[in-house]
From TrEMBL:
Gene Ontology CC entries for this record: mitochondrial membrane
Transmembrane annotation, as ranges: 22-41, 53-75
Stored PANTHER family: TRANSMEMBRANE PROTEIN 70, MITOCHONDRIAL
Family recorded in the similarity comment: Belongs to the TMEM70 family.
Name of this chain's protein: Putative transmembrane protein 70 log mitochondrial
InterPro entries: TMEM70, TMEM70/TMEM186/TMEM223
Protein species of origin: Anopheles triannulatus
Length: 177
C-alpha cells in the first residue's frame, strides 16, 4: 500500500481484482514450473522419439509456459483494480497489475482523460494514451465516474462539423456538373 494514498480516498475497487491476481499467480507459477521441468522433458522426449518428439514437446510445453501468461497480461493489463482521488490535488490515481504482479500507479487529472467515441475491447477511457477499463457499477459514489467520463459536461453533437462536411460535399457536386 502506498503511504501517499490513503484508503479513505479510494473511490473504486474492481471486484475481479482477487480473481485476476490469483489467475496471474497460478499462470506465472506454472510457467516457472514449466521452465524448471523443460530439461527433464527434453531428455525424456529425446529418449522416446528423437527430434520430432522434441519439437512436439517443446511446442506444447512452450505454448503453456510462455504464451499463456502473455495472453493473460494482454487481457488484464487495462483492468483498474483500485482508483483513488486526492481532493487537494484534484488528481486521480488508477492502480493496475503489471506482468509480474506489481501495482502500477497512473496519476491523472480530469483534463488527461479521453473517452473514445467507439470504445475498444476492455477500454472505458484513455489516460495519457493508456487504455483503462473500469466497471461503472463498482463506484460507490457515481459522481467520480460521471466526472471521469465527462458526463457532467454539455453534450457536443458536432453539428458544426456535420454542416461543414455537408457544405463541402455540395460544393464538390456543383463543381462536377
Amino acid at each position: 500500500q502506498d503511504s501517499s494514498v490513503e484508503p479513505a480516498n479510494r473511490v473504486y475497487y474492481g471486484t475481479l481484482t482477487p480473481q485476476i491476481r490469483a489467475v496471474k499467480v497460478f499462470s506465472l507459477a506454472t510457467s516457472i514450473g514449466g521452465i524448471v521441468a523443460q530439461p527433464v522433458l527434453l531428455e525424456q522426449a529425446n529418449k522416446i522419439g528423437g527430434t520430432p518428439m522434441i519439437v512436439a514437446v517443446c511446442g506444447f510445453a512452450g505454448f503453456f509456459t510462455f504464451v499463456t501468461p502473455i495472453l493473460l497480461h494482454l487481457v488484464t493489463k487495462r483492468y483498474v483494480t483500485e482508483l483513488y482521488y486526492d481532493p487537494a490535488e484534484q488528481q486521480y490515481t488508477a492502480v493496475t497489475i503489471t506482468f509480474f504482479l506489481r501495482r502500477e500507479r497512473i496519476h491523472f487529472k480530469l483534463a488527461d482523460v479521453v473517452v473514445p467515441e467507439v470504445g475498444g475491447l476492455f477500454t472505458t477511457f484513455l489516460v495519457k494514451n493508456k487504455a483503462l477499463f473500469v466497471d461503472p457499477q463498482m463506484f460507490p459514489d457515481p459522481t467520480h465516474y460521471i466526472k471521469i467520463m465527462g458526463y457532467d459536461k454539455p453534450i457536443d453533437f458536432k453539428f458544426e462539423e456535420a454542416r461543414q462536411s455537408a457544405g463541402s460535399e455540395e460544393e464538390h457536386k456543383r463543381k462536377d456538373r
